[in-house]
Amino acid sequence: MTQVPGNGGPRPRYITPEGERALRDELQYLWKVKRPEVTQAVREAAALGDRSENAEYIYGKKQLREIDRRVRFLSKRLEELTVVDRLPDDRDKVFFGAWVTVEDEDGEEQTYRLVGADEFDLSKGYLSINSPLARALIGKRLDDEVSVRTPEGWKSVFVVGIRYQAPADDK
């Protein structure tokens, strides 16, 4: 497993296997399902005549442009990403893909999974590897203290849990 560099240089483009699968599923859905549906709707709207005042036709063409833009982005992005599909040798340290539980000075605990920028979702506890907290956590062990600058000032947390889930063997 590659350790994420601390500062400088381009940001790493890591993604978990689950994140890659989600992006590939979205690409497949847009290309094989959504785009043909919208294309058919545009074809039907165009058959109705005057396209300049045909709201369905205009909206459909706009939808197609948005779908095509997203398809281009996903296709290019998937080529640039590095899938991290193995556990680190030292599982006592925080690396990409880890579930990390931190405790703040008030005793409040939060658990985050360090994931790629394309898959972060704080509602699921997925924290972007490029975030200040995630960058500060990389390489830390249980009971290590981490300080991060926030808009409210410096915040310190302690690492109280580190776990990794084994990659799914569905390849």
From TrEMBL:
Superkingdom of source: Bacteria
Gene3D superfamilies, per database record: Transcription elongation factor, GreA/GreB, C-terminal domain, Transcription elongation factor, GreA/GreB, N-terminal domain
Keyword Protein biosynthesis among record annotations: yes
Domain Transcription elongation factor GreA/GreB C-terminal stretches: 91-164
Coiled-coil portions: none
Domain Transcription elongation factor GreA/GreB N-terminal: 14-83
GO terms assigned for molecular function: DNA binding; RNA polymerase binding; translation elongation factor activity
InterPro entries reported in the protein's UniProt record: GreA/GreB_C_sf, TF_GreA/GreB_CS, Tscrpt_elong_fac_GreA/B, Tscrpt_elong_fac_GreA/B_C, Tscrpt_elong_fac_GreA/B_fam, Tscrpt_elong_fac_GreA/B_N, Tscrpt_elong_fac_GreA/B_N_sf, Tscrpt_elong_fac_GreB
GO biological process: DNA-templated transcription elongation; regulation of DNA-templated transcription elongation
Record's function text: Necessary for efficient RNA polymerase transcription elongation past template-encoded arresting sites. The arresting sites in DNA have the property of trapping a certain fraction of elongating RNA polymerases that pass through, resulting in locked ternary complexes. Cleavage of the nascent transcript by cleavage factors such as GreA or GreB allows the resumption of elongation from the new 3'terminus. GreB releases sequences of up to 9 nucleotides in length.
PANTHER family for this protein: TRANSCRIPTION ELONGATION FACTOR GREA, TRANSCRIPTION ELONGATION FACTOR GREB
Family stated for the protein in its record: Belongs to the GreA/GreB family. GreB subfamily.
Name of the protein in question: Transcription elongation factor GreB
Organism, scientific name: Marinobacter maroccanus
GN (gene name): greB
